[in-house]
Structures are given as structure tokens and as C-alpha cells.
Amino acid sequence: MPIRKVRVILKLSGELFGENGNHIDFEKYDIVAKKLISIKNKSNAQIAVVVGGGNIFRGRQANSEVDHVQADMMGMLATVINGVGLREALTRNGDTDARLMTAFNLPEMAEPYIINKGLHHLSSGRTVIIAGGLGRPNFSTDSAVAQCANELQCQVVLKASTVDGIYDMDPRKHPEAIKYKEISYVDALNKRLAVMDMTAFAMCMGSKIPIFVFDIKDLARIPEAIGGDYSFGTIVR
């Protein structure tokens, strides 16, 4: 019987693709694309990527007079812009069969997110970028990565963060904050740790998919995590 390859899903915040007040920095797409290609080559893993859109717009940024459903739709479209940018960078840098899938129909730009198609692409060694969140308002891209992790039969969720793991309080505001090397889903929910939204934590708990939270600066170390080394972040399981 052939050995099943490791399949992971990576959540990338939209802020990763902007710089110095610029909503879009094409050099950032390039940097991330090259790192993803290197990760695939080193680990031989099957990789799905869920992109956020915070560098461009989040629905919650709208003022109170704006209908929140319409604002969330704008936020979902922002994630598609990042998906197109990352796919272009991957293709230009050698990953010529990378696929962009969206939760709503944009046939001129991307494939619709269909579970069986996503599974086929991953099994065929293609990088799959997923944009548009869950395609519905009121759900974050964290919820999208948790849902897609289950549907695409991923073994672990890799959550790139602005800090190197999960702490009992914000380490950027509280130097005395204590980092967890490992924490259970239940404790993460009970303590209301804000590194992912509570819906996403609950969804991963239900599907029993571990979440590894690490610093985005350590993106190149993902092959270590794929190999089971979680020392540079926090594992939730």
C-alpha cells in the first residue's frame, strides 16, 4: 500500500501582502510564493493555502451605518485579489500548475471551490489557493481554513501569526505573558485565546485536526512542522 503524503492547510493573513501603507506589495507575493515553492520541494507535502484580505479591506472596518453583510462581501472580494496575486507569483516563479479556487463563482478568474476538485488537485501535487472565505457573511477566513481543512482531509492547520505562538495574554502589550507550547482545544476555547476566532477553534476540535500557530517570520520552517517539530510555536490538539 502506498504511503499517504502529508497534506496541510496554511492560513496566510492579508497583512502579509502589504507594506509601509501600501495595500498591495507585489514583492511580498513574490517572497511568499518562493517560500511556498521551497517548502513543497523540501517536504514533498500537499499544500492548500487560505488567504485573508486584511491588507485591502475587512468587513468590520466599515462604519456602523454601512450594512455589515455588504461590507463582508467587500472583504471577501479583497481576499480574491490576494489569491490572484499569489497565484500569479507562484506561476511566474515555477509552480506553473497552481490553482486558485473561490467560494463563489468568478469563472474568468478562478475555479469554483468544489471539494472533489480540490482533493484531485492536491493529490496531483498542485498548490491550491482558496479565496473568498466561506462565501458567506459573518464568517472569517479562520472559519474557512477550519472548514476546508476538514473537507480536504488535511492533517494539520498551519496558522501564520504575528507572534510566535499562543500566549495567555498579548505579548506585545504584556512582556510577562506566558507562551503555551501545547494547549487543548477546550482550554483555548475556555480561555478565549484570540489567535483564531472561537468558531474556527470549535470546528477544528470537532474534526480533530490540530492547529499549529507560529510566527509568519518562520514560514520557511514549515517543513520542520510537517515533520512533527512544533518547538517554534504552539500546537493545539
Describe the structure.
The chain is of the alpha/beta class and 237 residues long. It has one domain (7-236): Carbamate kinase (3-Layer(aba) Sandwich). It is built from 7 helices and 11 strands. Helix 1 (26-43) packs across helix 2 (68-92) and helix 4 (141-151) runs parallel beside helix 6. It is globular and about 50 Å long. The mean pLDDT is 92.
Could you give a quick summary of the protein structure above?
This protein is an alpha/beta fold and 237 residues long.
The CATH architecture can be given as 3-Layer(aba) Sandwich
How many strands? 11
Low-confidence stretches: none
Q: Largest beta sheet, briefly? A: 9 strands, mixed
**CATH class, anyone?**
Alpha Beta
CATH homologous group name = Acetylglutamate kinase-like
Q: What structural class is derived from the secondary structure elements?
A: alpha/beta
Distance between the termini: 28 Å
Kindly report the oligomeric state of this protein: single chain
Mean pLDDT: 92
- Counting DSSP H or I runs of 4 or more residues, the number of helices is 7
| Proportion of residues in β-strands | 15-25%
Q: Going across the major beta sheet, what is the strand order?
A: 4-3-5-2-1-6-10-11-9
